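ASSEMBLY PREDICTION REQUEST
Request ID: AP-0331
Submitted by: J.K., bench scientist
Number of chains: 13
Total residues: 1310
Priority: normal
Notes: Please return the full assembly, not individual chains.
Input sequences:
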Amino acid sequence: MSVIQQLADVNVDIAGNIGTMGYGLAAIGPGIGVGIVWAAYINSTARQPESAGLTRTYAFLGFAVSEALALLGFVVPFIL
Amino acid sequence: MSVIQQLADVNVDIAGNIGTMGYGLAAIGPGIGVGIVWAAYINSTARQPESAGLTRTYAFLGFAVSEALALLGFVVPFIL
Amino acid sequence: MSVIQQLADVNVDIAGNIGTMGYGLAAIGPGIGVGIVWAAYINSTARQPESAGLTRTYAFLGFAVSEALALLGFVVPFIL
Amino acid sequence: MSVIQQLADVNVDIAGNIGTMGYGLAAIGPGIGVGIVWAAYINSTARQPESAGLTRTYAFLGFAVSEALALLGFVVPFIL
Amino acid sequence: MSVIQQLADVNVDIAGNIGTMGYGLAAIGPGIGVGIVWAAYINSTARQPESAGLTRTYAFLGFAVSEALALLGFVVPFIL
Amino acid sequence: MSVIQQLADVNVDIAGNIGTMGYGLAAIGPGIGVGIVWAAYINSTARQPESAGLTRTYAFLGFAVSEALALLGFVVPFIL
Amino acid sequence: MSVIQQLADVNVDIAGNIGTMGYGLAAIGPGIGVGIVWAAYINSTARQPESAGLTRTYAFLGFAVSEALALLGFVVPFIL
Amino acid sequence: MSVIQQLADVNVDIAGNIGTMGYGLAAIGPGIGVGIVWAAYINSTARQPESAGLTRTYAFLGFAVSEALALLGFVVPFIL
Amino acid sequence: MSVIQQLADVNVDIAGNIGTMGYGLAAIGPGIGVGIVWAAYINSTARQPESAGLTRTYAFLGFAVSEALALLGFVVPFIL
Amino acid sequence: MSTQLLAAEGETNPIGLPWGEVLIGAIGFAVLVWVLAKFVWPMFEKAYAERTQAIEGGIAKAEQAQNEAKAALEQYQAQLAGARE
Amino acid sequence: MSTQLLAAEGETNPIGLPWGEVLIGAIGFAVLVWVLAKFVWPMFEKAYAERTQAIEGGIAKAEQAQNEAKAALEQYQAQLAGARE
Amino acid sequence: MNPVLSAATSILAAEGSGDGGFAPPSVEHSFFFDRLSDGSVIASVKAMVLLVLGVILIIAFFLASARKAAVMPSKMQFAGESMYGFVRNGIAIEVLGGTAGKKWAGFLASMFTFVLVLNLWGIIPFAQMPVNGHFAIPVMLAALVWVVYNAVGIKKHGFLGYLKLQTVIPGVMPAMHILLIPIEFLSNILLRPFTLAVRLFANMFAGHMLIGVAATGTIFLLQQGGVGYALFVLPAAASIFLVFFELLICALQAYVFTLLTAIYLEGSLADSH
Amino acid sequence: MVDLTIAEKAARRSAAGGVWSLGHLRVCWAALVAGGAVLTLVGALVDGSRAAWGVVLGTVIVGAFFSFSAVVIAKVGERNPKGVLAAALISYVAKIVALGVVLVMIPRDGVFDTRWMAGAVGIGLFCWLGAHMRYVWTTKLFYVDPS
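STATUS: Completed
Returned structure:
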């Protein structure tokens, strides 16, 4: 049995690595998260300027751990 | 029956692992969530500096459990 | 009829399991939700430290039920 | 006419069920929604501890109906 | 002309119904919307306990119409 | 030249209608929007009970026009 | 060299128009936007009932321009 | 070796233009943005009716920038 | 064994580079983050004009670290 | 129910509407509503009413007695006043 | 998947579930009943006690009020009778 | 694997170890294993038996509790009374107001108990099938509600008056009505019974499937042995947690169904939109 | 009296740069150029001139990317402090689109070695952000602008 009837007209021309989309997606969340952290730091510093020193450590920490998620997304394609 | 008429012009050149997109997606939520947690900690510390010690535990806890979801997304491609 | 004219140059090299994307998507919501819950707990504890014991149960409960959705997404690829 | 020139080097290795992505998507909204509900309950309990009993019913109600949407996404692949 | 050199090693194994993704997407909005409605009800009840009876009807109505959108997405795959 | 070595093992089994995804996407926005409208109505009624009659018209109006977008998404697959 | 061993079992059955997804995406933003506009109108009317007449024009205007974006998405598939 | 056993039953029937999805994506941001702009305008006008003239300029500006982005998405598919 | 029965009617016509999509995705999150940071700056400056100098420094930093993620997305396609 | 039958047919549509089930459900619900409305809810309402009667009616009766007592007291005082003149 | 399960249906019991599922469901239900008996039943008992208390108290109070009023009435009437003499 | 344990677990599973892969319970397995012929008349005999049994149980319970309704309630009477009182005071009178509430309290209480008991069959051992997971029952109830609230509205306002009440939002500029009337008609007249039915059905259906997946997963891991012994605790714990969650969902859906019925009735009886 | 000098320097910086000081740009450019120079040298030694040109391009991209918005925001902010949000977003979109065009235009096998360019962008990024963070962390800042 060998019934074939095909009328294709394909014209595909795609290139690239899916890892780029992976990084792109991984950058969405941290991009927003980092923004939220610094926005909170700016707001609280403006209201209580004397607390700037106290909270600066945590602002940098929050920024670093959120950013780390994006950088991990940068590494994932290499080890997968 | 065997009617074929095909005019393809394909030129695909894709590579990569879908797991990278999985990690990327898994990083969106925690990226934002971690940002929200630290933002809350910064805000509340700035307002009530005396509560910093009390809430620090929970800031780290919240950060850890939210981040864990992203790190799980890092592991999933290996065990699936 | 059998007109074929094909100039393909394919070079695909994709791997992976769609389940990873499923987990990734499932982690978005809980990632944010967990962040919101802990942010609320941090804020309310900082404001009313005496309420920390009262609300802690609910913070853990909210965290657990939100996180459970992501963990379910971890299991789904195995049973589907 | 039959001009073919193909230099493929394919190496695909994909597996999985689209239903996992369906569940993943269905978990996004409830994950956030559940977080919002419990955050509201934590906040209002911390502010008005005497209202905790009154609002607890509704916190559980909101949590259950929001969570149900995600669990629904869990069974959709079975019936479709 | 007929130059072919192909070294494929395909191993695809995908299954599923796109309707599951349709439901998943349809559940995102209502999942959040329902959460917002109940959060508002919890907050307002905690602040003005005497208004609980007045607003309960609207909380349930808002929950029902928001949820309806997800339930519609549950049956769309069957009728399409 | 004609070197072929292929070891495919394909097993695809996908079905469904893209219209379901269209409806699902169309339901995201209104699902959240409807929730926001009713949340605002609940909050404002709880605070100013005497304004309930005045704002009810607009609560129903806002709900209807937001819902309309989702219902339109329900119809689009049939007419497209 | 010509080693072929193929055991495909393809069973794809997808239908639909991408325009539906286009409309669905186009309805996300306006669905939320319309909700926000009416929520703002409800809130401000409840607080300052005397301003209802003043802001009504702008509520309808904001609703119209936001909704227009979705309705445009309804028309785009027809003219594209 | 040449074992082939293929029982395909492909039935893809997708139509439409990806440009519609482009427009849809482009409309998400402005749809929400326009809503936020008008909501802010309604709120501030209700609170300080005398500031209506001053803020109207900014509202229209924000609305224009927001809407322009969507119209850009509307035009791009035609010129691409 | 060679049972083939195929009735395809394919008509695909896609083009593009996945790297650009990855880049586009990577630009979304930082774009929102940048908006959040500067919105916080404007708000806090409007409330406490005297703190503008202090918070501006942090706004610049938050802005830079958030947009760095998008820049990183720019190079991913080159090294992958 | 035999295995062959099950194996022979396809799957049941989970959102199908077997009219037999609709009928049985409707009859069951109708019977439930009728029996409860006829024999149960009136009894409860009667019990509620009796209870209210027992408490509020008792209080009302007490009030009435009190009023009578007050009237008697007034009468007594009036007579007392009249006697003193 | 379905052939295996369908084949299994034939051998299973009229309740249509493999005993494993029944057992696990029963364990879960037992835990549920235990928790309800431990935490909810006392609340029910308390509510019942309160309710009967409230009704009894209400009736008793009503009766007491009635008695008091009656006693007062009798007293006044007695006084009235005495004054008339 | 231990032969004794193996035998035990294979009896528990009653479907053999199969080909080793995990087979989740199918819809047929969970809901339609004993349909009559092709299932177009009765899709599950067990569900119908449970339905009739449920009705009998409710009637028996309430007759027993109301048989000699006294001023001083017995425990039985207190249980029945508080259930009726919950619907009467908490739903009917609160939503519909005094007179209409007392009139409809019986109907709403019957509906609440009916839905509740039929839901609860899903977690009661040996029954273990929520009857409302069969689409026919929720559809029947929702259709009844639809007929009732429309009939009540038409009786009070007349046909055109009722249509105007349900579709026209007062105080809106006339041009908007072109958009609003169809939407309001759709969401108030057509979608209400539909969502009422689907909400109840989908929740019970999903809950039952979830419990089934957790239970079969536990058995599967036990049969697998090895690492399965370490992992089976997770689905086992999940299936116990799910019983609690299902109790919540059962009660909640019965409450939501009844309350929405009351709200829709109130919408038909109201004087304005 | 180290503190005093730091305070004086900060005051001078604030006064010199106006309200919208861009002092961090100098430090960041210094770090970036230093890193870029080292990497150019390494690239030239390892892979030849193409690698060196790639590193230079990458370094320029990083510097231009960060400096552009910073300058635009500062210029807008001096005149209309409320406009910084719009300035930030518009300049961000503009440079993202420009970068996208560059991404598509850069030839993979031209004068630039794109892999070295990518590496230079990554390393330059860290140099820049590190310098910026150190600047913010160590500079003495006033709670209130001295004006």
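REVIEWER COMMENTS: The helical segments of chain M are 2-16, 23-47, 49-79, 84-105, 114-138.
SIGN-OFF: pending second reviewer
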